[in-house]
Amino acid sequence: MARKQQSIEIVDAAALAAESDAWDDLMARAVAPHPHFSRHVIEAHIRAGLLPGDTAFIAVRDGGRLNALLPFRRGLDIIGLGRLVAQPALSPFMPSSAPLVAAENLFETLALLVSGLAEASRGRAWRWPLLTVSSLAGRGLLHAMRESGWTVGIVAEFERPVLDRRPSHDAFLKDHPHKSRLKDLRRRRRRLAEMGRLDLVTATEGEALAAALDDFLALELAGWKGEAGTALACRCKTLALARGLFANRPGPVCVRADTLSLDGRPLAVSLALVAGGTANLLKTAYDERERALAPGLVLEAEIVRVFHETTFAQRLDSATLAGSALESLYRERETVAEIVAVPPSGDTHLSLERRVSLARFEHRARHEAKRLLKRG
Fold first, then answer.
1. What pLDDT is attached to residue 2?
2. Which residue of 55, 214, 248, 375 lies most exposed, with the fewest beta carbons within 10 A?
3. H helices, E strands: number in the chain
């Protein structure tokens, strides 16, 4: 029997919500299935008001089955100099932007998705941050673009720490290149344990999960993020997002909260989304009164131990930007890039090189502004 022909369409979030099983099915079949474009995360953002309810998606279909999805938006950007540019629809709480693509017929699907990118942008350029270009989905997307005649430039890239599971925790420790770092974390853990009973507790559902989330929110609010007004509990929308993300809902994305406590008092809490065998460690908060003993990093080391002992995932993804403290703990790296991509016969009023230069100029300006604010 001949295989059905795949097709491309532009749909909105409301239409996708009506076929939640198909969305979840794609998440379960996706190659490199990060959770950030899953139904669980997108719907939490929409309910919290951090993404519009009519967010558009490029979809590749095979009959009634979804084979690829990418949320996107069009807007003004410096690389367009007054003209519209397309981008993945992201929030500050989405650290990855690779499309969800089914593993079967991967390259055929990506070729169709690239056609959809040109249709969605109406021939205009794409500015694409946080694309994991070392993953199969990211590499395949870039290959499909170039095969279709797109021009692609790299604005910036960094190495994100990830950790693949070893046969045991002892095997992880044995050949670790930063033994002094591990020794330091063990020393800090011992000092914490000398102060009282040190426990690691994991919550994945129900009242325990809700209590762990409350502990996280309180720790973050009491620290420098609370003072700066950037803690999740500082704004109604981000508080609603936290409660939406870390509610135990049916589907292929699971949630967990790991808490390090001292005599029952939370010292640090880590929140993670687990999908496709990868735990994405989105946020950690710690009691800044104990900063000298680094309870947040001690918790991260404990999570690595439990990761090997209980096999709740096959990979830990730090979900961080450049300069993460986890670089000395996690062994592997994934390359994350910001790209500018222009379809063939697209908007040619600016060269690719000029667009890339403008994006880099914007990065430098933001970095300098942050530096001056810190000085002030």
1. 42
2. 375
3. 12, 13
| Length of the chain measured in residues | 376
**Cα–Cα distances in angstroms (integers) from residue 276 to residues 24, 159, 236, in the given order:** 12, 21, 31
Tokens 């994100």 appear where? 160
CA–CA dist 300, 282 (Å, integer): 12
- Average pLDDT, integer, range 105-123: 96
Alpha-carbon span 355 to 83, nearest angstrom: 12
Q: Dihedrals φ, ψ of 205, to 5°?
A: -165, 165
The pTM is what?
0.93
pLDDT grade for 376, boundaries at 50, 70 and 90:
low
Taking the C-alpha atoms of residue 170 and residue 123, their distance in angstroms, rounded to an integer, is 53
CB 240 within 8 A of CB 48: yes
The C-alpha atoms of residue 261 and residue 296 are separated, in whole angstroms, by: 11
3-state SS string for 279-347: EEEEEEEECHHHHHHCHHHHHHHHHHHHHHHHCCCCEEECCCCCCCHHHHCCCEEEEEEEEEEECCCCC
